[in-house]
Specification:
With about 850 residues, the chain is mainly alpha-helical. Helix content is about 55%, strand content about 5%. The protein has 33 helices and 13 strands. Strand 12 and strand 13 form a beta hairpin. Helix 13 packs antiparallel against helix 15, helix 18 packs antiparallel against helix 23 and helix 18 crosses helix 25. The radius of gyration is 34 Å and the shape is elongated. The two termini are about 65 Å apart. Its main location: membrane. It is a multi-pass membrane protein. Keywords: Antiport, ATP-binding, CBS domain, Cell membrane, Chloride, Endosome, Glycoprotein, Ion transport, Lysosome, Membrane, Nucleotide-binding, Repeat, Transmembrane, Transmembrane helix, Transport.
């Protein structure tokens, strides 16, 4: 009580019976005790003298916020107790975050939590909650991702079978589930049972004949068009961001670009529904890429439950990388049963920033997603994957030659697809045809359904097609691909594999597969990029699997009819199973997917997890690497990077090398003959001058210098932060006028007695902006932008400000060096 008695005792010479003095004295007590610095009396003296200096004569009065000379020589009380300004540090839509500033904010938050956790049990509990929040969000995301992936697959299978018929005993059963309990199925026609009725049987009452074929044809097309129309309509009306794969935008968002609503709840809801409809419509697309987007939406929504992520954009994007791993594990597990491959896919293909801690949590998220999928059991086979296969025949050294040929085919297909698809998407963006997305989707869906129905390999679901192509022929297989001529072994006949000649059914199937290959290649080019959810994994794998199965059957028959050739004589005996056509289909699928996406390690792991056999890693590695080398010969970017460049997103690809010899002064702005750089001075600008600079320019930030004469750099202030700080000051502080002095220094400048109250903006100033000299090679500057995630960099010469380099300036320069139009690549 000594400080109070010293100021309020009647005998004290310091006694001042004012409410302001009492308040400031209490502030002094609190301030001194919390910082454990000087005595309480010292801080009472400090605050009272501060009050006296502001209330004396012509100086600032607390009631009207006036200003004077006395105030200019001392710090205002509000400056000592400065609070964060609401809204400062946030970002506008379609802007890039400042990674360095966000990381500094997170470190400061972490230090604050650690310093308080020993004060009480509540603070310790809060610190534990903060530490475990990342694991909690990843767990929730893995659960949601796995559940949604299973539901999407079950619903898509049911709707896909609905195009052919309906189960009378249970409407919610698909074709396979409908016939599980039937006792009237045969080995050759195991998919036919009395409970399942085609549309011709329901409408016309007959299962065979031209009339029933036409009715089934019509209903197949009708349902395909209905699903496609409903999908594109929902996307157009409720969530335009729900279209496409989502991976190019996810990569851009993880690099620090803000796209509001892309990971929102409406996008999640509409993308989940329309993904089921798009897959069921029969369009040449997959669900793996969109599932990555779906899971990232889940993670973004869950992250808002935790302040650690909701209030920090950099932490949110670091966390989104973990979410993406969970999404990759969930999406890839549905198709491949490869959660570890999903984590590696995130690391290799999508992530922009991947610290070691993220790898651990990604592994955990993959575990959770795979566990949920296994619990749901969407395929009814107690496995994570629809087309799980096991091969029992080893591969031989001679087979590396056809495996490498499949790799060459995959690389050529990838290069051709990327160029053709980007050319079509660019034409769509530049012509009137792109203004009618519903008409385009309906047209492509109609062509797909009409052409696909006559061919059984294009009519069926693409995942079912891949399963059939991967499967090794055996006694339990009734596919047309396994119709070999049986050989007699005593009195028993066995269906034969590679030790038998192909029957006419196999040759008929090869012709149908050849037509399906051409159809899939053409339709995939026009389908990827439509305004519906569309992935690329399954179509690319289907194309490679078709090509691989054709090559495998050809090599198989070559070995059967010419087993005495030196290529086969040493290792392929007469009557032995030497060639496995399903293995060739698997290698071809990996090669084509690698040619399109340019994945290597993660792709090999995905396919390895698919087969469960270590001995097939070498053929997969040979095919995938060959595919990448051939594809890179025509262009180093994959399909996702090509779409990022097409849309003009500000993304610096870490895979792209900068080999030019330009310097920072060649890229910085302003250039010669340009208008001077818009700058702010630290203490001699009025509020009106500051607002004029903001209104007359469109820059996202302004360097702050000492004066126009010295050009010495002080810091950098963002346009959005300045605007928010001015609005906040006018709302909460009295006396702020257009001729008020704006200063970014610690202490207010010396002002005349009749000057209005100055405005301090030091709290929004970045006093450590990243700078380089004008002679810094651009190769180093580009690396700095990539690895630190900068949004701008200031250029100086001997400490004097010369210009500024932004991420968009670097992208324009790289386009110019590549003989492209610099302005045509920027996001609009």
């Amino acid at each position: 009580l000594e400080p109070f008695w010293a100021y309020f005792s009647p005998d004290s010479d310091k006694a001042t019976f004012s409410l302001e003095n009492a308040v400031f004295c209490i502030m002094g007590l609190v301030f001194s005790n919390s910082l454990k610095l000087k005595s309480s009396v010292y801080y009472c003296d400090l605050f009272i003298s501060c009050l006296d200096s502001h209330s004396d004569g012509s100086n600032y009065a607390m009631s009207n916020g006036g200003g004077g000379a006395g105030a200019s020589s001392s710090t205002h009380l509000l400056d000592l107790l400065e609070e964060p300004i609401p809204g400062v540090g946030t970002y506008d839509d379609f802007h890039t975050i400042d990674w360095v500033r966000e990381k500094c904010k997170d470190r400061e938050r972490h230090r604050k939590i650690n310093s308080k956790k020993k004060e009480s049990a509540w603070e310790f509990t809060k610190s534990l909650y903060d530490a475990w929040s990342g694991w909690l969000v990843v767990t929730l995301t893995g659960l949601a991702s796995g559940a949604l992936a299973g539901v999407i697959d079950i619903a898509a299978d049911w709707l896909n079978d609905l195009k052919e018929g309906v189960c009378l005993s249970a409407m919610w059963f698909n074709h396979e589930q409908c016939c599980w309990d039937s006792n009237e199925t045969t080995f050759a026609e195991r998919d036919k049972c009395p409970q399942w009725k085609t549309w011709a049987e329901l409408i016309l009452g007959q299962a065979e004949g031209p009339g029933s074929y036409i009715m089934n044809y019509f209903m197949f097309t009708f349902w395909a068009l209905s699903f496609a129309f409903l999908a594109v309509s929902l996307v157009k009306v409720f969530a335009p961001y729900a279209c496409g794969s989502g991976i190019p935008e996810i990569k851009t968002i993880l690099s620090g670009f803000i796209i509001r609503g892309y990971l929102g709840k409406w996008t999640l809801m509409i993308k989940t529904i329309t993904l089921v409809l798009a897959v069921a419509s029969g369009l040449s697309l997959g669900k793996e890429g969109p599932l990555v987007h779906v899971a990232c939406c889940c993670g973004n929504i869950f992250s808002y439950l935790f302040p650690k992520y909701s209030k920090n954009e950099a932490k949110k994007r670091e966390f989104s990388t973990r979410v993406l791993s969970a999404a990759s594990a969930a999406g890839v597990s549905v198709a491949f049963g490869a959660p570890i491959g999903g984590v590696l896919f995130s690391l290799e293909e999508v992530s922009y920033y991947f610290p070691l801690k993220t790898l651990w949590r990604s592994f955990f998220a993959a575990l959770v997603a795979a566990f949920v999928l296994r619990s749901i059991n969407p395929f009814g086979n107690s496995r994570l994957v629809l087309f799980y296969v096991e091969y029992h025949t080893p591969w031989y050294l001679f087979e590396l030659f056809p495996f490498i040929l499949l790799g060459v085919f995959g690389g050529l297909w990838g290069a051709f697809f990327i160029r053709a698809n980007i050319a079509w998407c660019r034409r769509r963006k530049s012509t009137r045809f792109g203004k009618y997305p519903v008409l385009e989707v309906i047209t492509v869906a109609a062509i797909t359904a009409i052409v696909a129905f006559p061919n059984p390999y294009t009519r069926q679901n693409t995942s079912e097609l891949i399963k059939e192509l991967f499967t090794d022929c055996g006694p339990l297989e009734s596919s047309q691909l396994c119709q070999y001529r049986s050989q007699m072994n005593g009195s028993q006949a066995y269906p034969a594999g590679s030790d038998a000649a192909a029957a006419p059914g196999v040759y008929s199937a090869m012709w149908q597969l050849s037509l399906a290959l051409v159809f899939k290649i053409i339709m995939t080019i026009f389908t990827f990029g439509l305004k519906v959810p569309s992935g690329l994994f399954i179509p690319s794998m289907a194309i490679g699997a078709i090509a691989g199965r054709i090559v495998g059957i050809a090599v198989e028959q070559l070995a059967y009819y010419h087993h005495d050739w030196f290529l086969f004589r040493e290792w392929c005996e007469v009557g032995a199973d030497c060639i496995t056509p399903g293995l060739y289909a698997m290698v071809g699928a990996a090669a084509c997917l690698g040619g399109v996406t340019r994945m290597t390690v993660s792709l090999v792991v995905i396919v390895f997890e698919l087969t469960g056999g270590l001995e097939y890693i070498v053929p997969l590695m040979a095919a995938v690497m060959t595919s990448k080398w051939v594809g890179d010969a025509f262009g180093r970017e994959g399909i996702y990077e090509a779409h990022i460049r097409l849309n003009g997103y500000p993304f610096l690809d870490a895979k792209e090398e900068f080999t030019h010899t330009t310097l920072a002064r060649d890229v910085m702005r302003p250039r010669r003959n340009d208008t001077p750089l818009a700058v702010l001075t630290q203490d001699d600008m009025t509020l009106a001058e500051l607002q004029n600079i903001i209104s007359e320019t469109s820059y996202n930030g302004f360097p702050v210098i000492v004066s126009k004469e010295s050009q010495r750099l002080v810091g950098f202030a963002l346009r959005r932060d300045i605007t928010i700080a001015i609005e906040n000051a006018r709302r909460k502080q009295e006396g702020i006028m257009l001729n008020s002095r704006v200063y970014f220094t610690q202490h207010a400048p010396t002002l005349p007695a009749d000057s209005p109250r100055p405005l301090k903006l030091r709290s929004i100033l970045d006093m450590s902006p990243f700078t380089v000299t004008d002679h810094t090679p651009m190769e180093i500057v580009v690396d700095i932008f990539r690895k630190l995630g900068l949004r701008q960099c200031l250029v100086t010469h001997n400490g004097r400000l010369l210009g500024i380099i932004t991420k968009k300036d670097i992208l324009r320069h790289m386009a110019q060096m590549a003989n492209q139009d610099p302005e045509s690549i920027m996001f609009n």
